[in-house]
Design a protein that fits this description.
Blueprint: H1 26-58, H2 62-65, H3 67-90, H4 92-112, H5 116-144, H6 149-179, H7 184-187, H8 189-199, H9 215-238, H10 243-265, H11 279-309, H12 314-320, H13 322-338, H14 344-362, H15 371-398, H16 406-439, H17 443-453, H18 456-491
Helix pairs in contact: 1-3, 1-5, 1-6, 1-8, 1-11, 3-4, 3-5, 3-9, 3-16, 4-5, 4-8, 5-6, 6-12, 9-10, 9-16, 11-15, 11-16, 11-18, 13-15, 14-15, 14-18, 16-18, 17-18
Length: 509
């Protein structure tokens, strides 16, 4: 790793705009950027392990529990494009600092939250901070590292943080929840955030672009998605003909239609619709929506199953996920080599078949299923499928994109994953809750009340109902993978990728 420590120029901000300063402490700059990326990605999984503890401590309903995940995903995914654009206009280092500050303060609020409403609000703020810091961190690599080996090495470390963050989040979430308290899954971000902010003085500021932020587009797009997800969640809880449910669906339609109109008419749209004219790119984004839904569902429902039904501790749950992380990393490594030899759909297609098979395997879980013979192999198979699919879809999203659109094309891929995960989890949580309550009314509430009363017969009965809900969700998730497979087969017809093309970084978790 380059660690040039000369001092020409001595002041990081005295370098010519748009160029990586000579004589920079490149090693320290990379540590700062990588730590920020690790923190953002880690937060996508670390909270999952703590969900059952949060549910018990704050008395969160089964239908509202998913909002602790979705609030972050919707804010992150919905504002990611705006965050990247803000860095271009107002300075990448400045916006990076703002993003890390917001994320760190939101983590404090999340750790101190006395109820679910304030916790969900803190998660929204975390998502806003992540939507600013994540894209500007990637841009700062280009600003601070000269082309060639230094920049390539920096990009490699940055990309590695995506996979590492997911694994570390699962393990660290278990350790913190088990040995301290679930609130420490938020407090752990404070020292990281402070260290990153302290280290930003070594980062150079790049030149700024002209233009303006598409704030109306951000408000209508993100607002429409939030209204849609809330409508889906409320519909499953209070009925699909409920007045407020219908009102939120109506608001979602109005805002999303207005968003599309604004994107067509505005001079500087947050989402240039021209990116969807290429069928391969559009197909990659659509497939990533399904992949995001599958990944979110896997972490969410498996965590609840292992801790509620099997009685795993948070630490044991975190370590139980290791086959998933191993399978994902192995498959991503293999597929990154295959993209130079095979067309994207020849890799992603089989990957989606394998992923669907893993989800179907999960749908056969029972209250007494064995980890060694059922959970572990199903995790590994599902991870293989996801890992085989991510790389070709990532390359397909940026293949043939003009230079001025390359950044937004990359960001849109992460947006599709986050939004797909949030929408998919809202739908699957609704289905799971309905299926469980069909077996036993108010299954989740009955389960926890029976545990408190040590009524083990009722605990077993409620556990069977909850398991039925989780397995129903996995069966539907398998069908979502099949939907992604159909899009891949019929919409993506690109040839094999050139050896020189590189993929942007997608958050695998």
């Amino acid at each position: 790793m380059p660690t040039d420590s000369t001092t020409t120029p001595a002041d990081p901000e005295s370098a010519p705009p748009g160029e990586a300063p000579r004589g920079r402490h490149l090693g320290l700059a990379l540590v700062v950027i990588a730590a920020a990326q690790l923190m953002v990605v880690l937060d996508g999984t670390i909270t999952n392990i703590a969900l059952p503890s949060i549910q018990t401590d704050l008395d969160v309903s089964a239908s509202n529990l998913s909002w602790i995940v979705n609030a972050y995903a919707l804010a992150f995914g919905g504002l990611l494009l705006l965050g990247g654009r803000a860095g271009d206009l107002f300075g990448r280092r400045r916006m990076f600092r703002i993003g890390i500050t917001v994320f760190t303060l939101a983590s404090v609020l999340g750790g101190l939250a006395p109820n679910e409403e304030l916790l969900i609000g803190a998660r929204i703020l975390q998502g806003i901070g992540a939507s600013i810091s994540a894209p500007t961190a990637l841009s700062l690599i280009a600003t601070n590292f000269p082309e060639g080996k230094p920049r390539n090495k920096a990009m490699g470390v940055y990309a590695a943080m995506a996979g590492l963050g997911s694994t570390v989040g699962l393990l660290l979430g278990g350790v913190l929840t088990d040995y301290l308290d679930w609130r420490w899954v938020f407090f752990v971000n404070i020292p990281i955030g402070v260290a990153v902010l302290t280290g930003t003085k070594v980062l150079a500021e790049g030149e700024r672009n002209t233009g303006r932020l598409d704030v109306p587009g951000a408000v209508t797009g993100t607002g429409g998605l939030i209204a849609l997800v809330y409508g889906i969640t409320r519909g499953g809880q209070d009925g699909w003909t409920d007045t407020l449910t219908l009102a939120f669906f109506g608001v979602a339609v109005v805002l999303l239609v207005l968003f599309l109109v604004l994107q067509v008419r505005t001079t500087h749209p947050m989402l240039p619709l021209r990116l969807f004219r290429d069928r391969n790119r559009a197909g990659s984004y659509a497939t990533m929506l399904f992949l995001g839904a599958g990944m979110f569902a896997t972490f969410y429902f498996l965590t609840l199953y292992m801790q509620q039904i099997l009685g795993y501790s948070p630490v044991k749950t975190g370590f139980a996920y290791l086959p998933f992380s191993f399978g994902m990393g192995m498959a991503a490594g293999i597929s990154s080599k295959l993209v130079a030899r095979l067309a994207p759909r020849q890799i992603a297609g089989p990957g989606l078949v394998v992923g669907a098979a893993g989800m179907f395997w999960f749908s056969r879980l029972e209250p007494g299923s064995s980890y060694a013979t059922h959970l572990m192999p199903a995790m590994f198979v599902t991870a293989l499928g996801l890992g085989m699919s991510f790389v070709p879809m990532t390359l397909g999203a940026v293949s043939g994109v003009r230079d001025q659109d390359s950044g937004i094309a990359s960001a849109l891929l992460n947006t599709a994953q986050q939004i797909g995960g949030a929408l998919g989890l809202a739908v699957l949580t609704t289905i799971s809750t309905y299926a469980a309550n069909d077996r036993l009314p108010q299954a989740a509430g009955t389960f926890y009340r029976a545990i408190a009363m040590r009524d083990f017969a009722t605990v077993a009965k409620a556990g069977e109902a909850l398991t039925h809900g989780y397995t129903t969700a996995f069966a539907v998730a398998a069908s979502l993978f099949v939907g992604g497979l159909l899009i891949t087969v019929f919409a993506i017809n690109a040839k094999k990728q050139n050896h020189g093309e590189s993929a942007p970084t997608a958050h695998l978790g």
